[in-house]
C-alpha cells in the first residue's frame, strides 16, 4: 500500500481510504425521470434474466400490444391506417370532425371547447400533444376569398387560429384547384 502526503494535514495517509465511495458515486447510473401519473400494465419480460429492456421499452410494448404471426400489432387501434381518410382517434363513434355550422379552430382547443374524447388521442396523458384539425371546404373558400380581396395571410392565420404555413398551403391549393376547374381537368 502506497502512502501519499496530504497537503492539508501535512501527514501521510493511504491513498485508497475514500476511493470506494468515490468509485461508487462515479459508477452510479443516472436514472431518467419516470412519469409518475402514468401507470399502465407493463408488458411481461420475454425472459426473467436475459431481457434487458428498459422501463420505456416495456411501456412501449404494453401500448403497442401483442403481435400476430406476421408481426402486426393487431389489437392496437392506431396501427392500421384508416381507409376512409379520417383519423381513427377522432371519429370512432361516427361524430363529424368538422361542424358545418361553426368551424373548430386551434383557439377552441386552447379554451377547452374540444369535443374529443381524451382517451382516443395518441398520447392522452400529454395535454400538449394536439393533432391538426380538418378544415371545412367553406372555411377554405372563405380564406381564399379574403386573400384575393387583399387581406394579409398573417391576419387570417391569427383570426382563425390556424398556423401561417397551413393558411399559405390552403391558398396555394385553392389556386391550383380553381385553375384545374377552369381547364376542366377535374369535375
Automatic annotation (TrEMBL):
PANTHER family: 37S RIBOSOMAL PROTEIN S35, MITOCHONDRIAL, SMALL RIBOSOMAL SUBUNIT PROTEIN MS45. Pfam families: Bot1p. GO terms for cellular component: mitochondrial small ribosomal subunit. Residues 101-118 have a biased composition (Basic and acidic residues). One of its GO terms (biological process) is mitochondrial translation. GO terms for molecular function: structural constituent of ribosome. Residues 85-123 are annotated as: Disordered. This is Uncharacterized protein. It comes from the Eukaryota.
Amino acid at each position: 500500500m502506497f502512502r501519499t502526503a496530504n497537503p492539508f494535514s501535512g501527514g501521510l495517509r493511504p491513498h485508497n481510504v475514500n476511493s470506494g465511495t468515490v468509485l461508487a458515486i462515479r459508477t452510479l447510473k443516472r436514472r431518467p425521470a419516470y412519469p409518475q401519473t402514468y401507470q399502465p400494465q407493463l408488458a411481461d419480460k420475454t425472459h426473467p434474466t436475459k431481457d434487458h429492456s428498459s422501463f420505456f421499452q416495456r411501456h412501449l410494448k404494453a401500448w403497442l400490444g401483442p403481435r400476430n404471426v406476421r408481426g402486426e400489432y393487431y389489437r392496437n387501434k392506431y396501427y392500421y391506417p384508416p381507409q376512409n381518410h379520417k383519423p381513427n382517434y377522432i371519429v370512432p363513434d361516427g361524430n363529424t370532425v368538422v361542424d358545418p355550422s361553426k368551424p373548430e379552430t386551434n383557439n377552441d382547443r386552447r379554451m377547452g371547447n374540444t369535443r374529443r374524447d381524451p382517451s382516443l388521442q395518441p398520447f392522452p396523458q400529454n395535454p400538449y400533444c394536439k393533432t391538426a384539425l380538418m378544415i371545412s371546404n367553406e372555411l377554405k373558400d372563405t380564406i381564399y376569398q379574403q386573400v384575393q380581396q387583399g387581406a394579409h395571410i398573417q391576419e387570417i392565420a391569427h383570426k382563425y387560429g390556424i398556423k401561417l404555413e397551413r393558411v399559405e398551403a390552403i391558398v396555394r391549393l385553392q389556386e391550383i384547384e380553381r385553375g384545374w376547374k377552369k381547364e376542366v381537368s377535374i369535375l
